[in-house]
Amino acid sequence: MLKLRKPRNAYDLLGLPRSATSEKIRARYRQLVRNYRREVSPGQLLEDGGFRRWTNAYLLLLSPDRREYDRRLRQSRGREEPADLVGGLSEAGRLLVGAEVAYAQRKMNDAAELAKEAVKQDSRNAEAYGLLGDILREQGKYRDALTMYNYAVQFEPNNRRYWQLLEEVTALGEGRTLPKRYRSERPTLLNRPAWAWMAVGLALAAVAAGSVYLRGDWGEGEILNIPGRLAYAALVEGFLLGLVLAATSILMPFDDEMISYQVAGFGAETTPVGIFVALPGIVFFWAALLFYPIVALLDEYWSASILIALGMCGAVALGLGYLAPKESRLAVYLLSGNFVFFGFLWGWLFGSIRRRAFEH
Question: What is the DSSP letter of 253?
């Protein structure tokens, strides 16, 4: 097993990028605990070291202190494990963690009982009401779930997740189409403004124009049986696409997607997905198309950014192969993707640096 480094912070512990939304944090925590020591009761799990570290990270990243924690991470270069928040939980808080675990393990009756106990301990606990709403919704009891979400909204009116769940369960109860989800908390592929797509369109036009302009005049000399100018054009075109896609936030930050990442089931060590995508992609691009699906299936998570990167680079490589001289066309089809992808990774990295500078 490949072991690169031990988790250094809350994001590493959960195997999440720093851009992770609260929904993704909640989903990853539930994924980690779903099959973790199912024979042990939720209360006993709180004494388990590994589970406790996950829970500390989860509680921190869903708390209002996350912004301050991110600031400290930037100062400490990503090295700061979360404090022992579990030790400071109230009785209601401990019951609620147990309910979350039971819910993740699909033990709905146990989860409901623990959440009800948490409500008895703290009658204004919005999280407990929200979890009860989730449980009742799973059981098809939409009217009861609606009541729980109403309580959650009453005690935490600024939580947009509860408002969304309230709208959804109302629609389900009335047999209507579910309302559209709120926009993600962070930039994603689907919520980019028109100017971002215009920039991408211009970049694609520049790539196409450059390739057509050089057609028939790829110069002398070869690199891996590829005409020299074609190889350099592949690098530049890949760099331009990566730079524009990253700078417009259509791709998530480079370090989030290619470095801070954990393959589920690999234990406590953090294994960057870049090992399974970047290295094969540079050595033989088409191999990355094989390795990444395996990684994604193991992790039960598909990165839109990586899929876009592989798709864009593959399309450019095929285009260059079509334009290449007949005598070197096969080599271009097989190997030009290496150059495109290498340039794309550098463009992605530089585009992400620009974004980090403006964000912080």
Answer: P
- Domain assignment present for residue 3? The answer is no
Distance separating alpha carbons of residues 274 and 338, to the nearest angstrom: 15
Please check whether residues 210 and 343 belong to one and the same domain: yes
- Check whether residue 40 and residue 122 sit in a common domain: yes
Percent of the chain that is helix, strand, coil (3-state, to 5)? 70, 0, 30
Helix, strand, or coil here: 226?
Answer: strand
41 and 152 share a domain?
yes
> Domain span at residue 198?
189-359
pTM value?
A: 0.57
Question: Looking at the DSSP assignment, which residues form a beta bridge with residue 80?
Answer: 9
- Sequential pLDDT tens for the chain (360 residues): 334 456 678 888 887 877 788 888 888 888 888 877 778 877 788 788 888 888 999 999 999 899 999 888 888 877 888 888 988 989 999 999 999 989 988 889 999 999 999 999 999 999 999 999 999 998 999 999 999 999 999 999 988 889 989 998 998 888 887 765 544 444 555 556 778 888 888 988 998 888 888 876 777 778 888 888 889 999 999 999 999 998 888 887 787 677 654 444 434 344 556 777 888 888 899 999 888 888 777 665 677 888 899 999 999 999 999 988 888 899 999 999 999 999 999 999 888 875 544 443
What is the domain-level CATH number for residue 154? 1.25.40.10
Tell me: do 226 and 160 sit in the same domain.
no
